[in-house]
From TrEMBL:
Domain of life: Bacteria
Keyword NAD belongs to the record: yes
Protein's recorded name: dTDP-glucose 4,6-dehydratase
Gene Ontology annotations of biological process type: nucleotide-sugar metabolic process
Source organism per UniProt: Jannaschia rubra
Name of the encoding gene: rffG
Length: 346
């Protein structure tokens, strides 16, 4: 089976690419290489037989048609997106362009290719999305696949729009689609501006660790390699037209997550301990969703999937990876003013 993975040089896409190649799939990695991409993320599989990389933008219809014609994939896993909520607040335009127009363009190219090929039964278009489309929960309850959409940030609104487009292409044109909505990921190769790497890198530099509001916001956390595993499971075994919520069964308040990382650093990198002295509460993000929680019953009952690591185990692996891979993250601090914004330098 040959899989076209969009966004395969990003955080989750590269985990999917690495795992798919290890599992023996042929993989075409399509990525525009925005600030968030890094081909080092897939360096371990770049020479594998059956792996190809194409630099292209999903909003470019001619380029998408060419990729389908040249590579004839059996399936698409669509992860390319603008993904950072804070950036969507500062500049929503890129999110509409890539997440909405880009998904539309990719759907149309996929539909043309699938139609021309005689609508083969086995073709799949797997759209990868987020639990943020469901909005914000109170102290109780969980998101199921039937929870009404209620996106509240430009990022989540653009992802919600893309989910609707994918469902509509399934209903209207019969395109064989499957969707998944996942909670917050963390793990190796996570771009330095995201919460978990910010905590690790600022702690290593002895810089303040910024915490929005009182750190009371609750998220469900999933180790990225478990997400990649779940996505390949949904692609192969998911029912057409259905969506699957993917979660880590690991709810944590931001402040508790941050304290756990600081505790791991105290043990694994005692220099500068105790690291939680660096925690600094900052003005909350506008419209900051209070709580996300995933009910993963469907994927567990129907596909037999569940996460392989606990939050503590996954965070320990993540901290170890950042301690051992300074050559990966150090140059990224220079990119797009990321290091300067975080108060750490390259
Ligand atoms: P990321 O920002 O690390 O990677 C996105 C990739 O898409 C980058 O390599 C980028 O170059 C590429 N890209 C962006 N615009 C493009 C375009 N116009 N054409 C082609 N490529 C383009 O994001 P991520 O965290 O790996 O997220 C991947 C997907 O998973 C996204 O769709 C996101 O919404 C979804 N998701 C993320 C999380 C999370 O916690 N990170 C959780 C659930 C779902």
């Amino acid at each position: 089976m040959k899989i076209l993975v969009t966004g395969g040089a990003g955080f989750i896409g590269s985990a999917v690419v690495r795992q798919a190649v290890r599992d023996g799939f042929e993989v075409v990695n399509l990525d525009a290489l925005t600030y968030a991409a890094n081909l080092d993320n897939v360096a371990s599989v770049a020479d594998a037989p059956g792996y190809a990389f194409v630099q292209a933008d999903i909003t470019d219809r001619a380029a998408m048609d060419a990729v389908f014609a040249d590579h004839a994939p059996d399936a698409v896993m669509h992860l390319a997106a603008e993904s950072h909520v804070d950036r969507s607040i500062d500049g929503p335009g890129a999110f509409i362009q890539t997440n909405v127009t880009g998904t539309y363009t990719l759907l149309e190219a996929a539909r043309a290719y699938w139609t021309k090929a005689g609508k083969p039964d086995g073709f799949r278009f797997h759209h990868v999305s987020t639990d943020e489309v469901f909005g914000s929960l109170g102290p109780t309850g969980m998101f199921t696949e039937d929870t009404p959409y209620d996106p509240r940030s430009p990022y989540s609104a653009s992802k919600a729009a893309s989910d609707h487009l994918v469902r509509a292409w399934g209903e209207t044109y019969g395109l064989p689609v499957v969707l998944s909505n996942c909670s917050n990921n963390y793990g190796p190769f996570h771009f330095p501006e995201k919460l978990v790497p910010v905590v690790i890198l600022n702690a290593l530099h002895g810089k303040p660790i910024p915490v929005y509001g009182a750190g009371e916001n609750v998220r469900d956390w999933l180790f990225v390699e478990d997400h990649a595993d779940a996505l390949l499971c949904v692609l192969q075994n998911g029912e057409l037209g259905r969506s699957y919520n993917i979660g880590g069964e690991n709810e944590a308040r931001n402040i508790d997550l941050i304290r756990t990382i600081c505790g791991l650093l105290d043990r694994m990198h005692p220099e500068g301990a105790p690291h939680d002295r660096l925690i600094e509460f900052v003005t909350d993000r506008p419209g900051h969703d209070a709580r996300y929680a995933i009910d993963p019953s469907r994927i567990r009952a129907e596909l037999g999937w569940r996460p392989s690591v606990t939050l503590e185990q996954g965070l320990e692996r993540t901290v170890r990876w950042y301690l051992d891979n300074e050559n990966w993250w150090r140059p990224l601090l220079d990119r797009d003013g990321v290091g300067a914004r975080l108060g750490v330098t390259a």
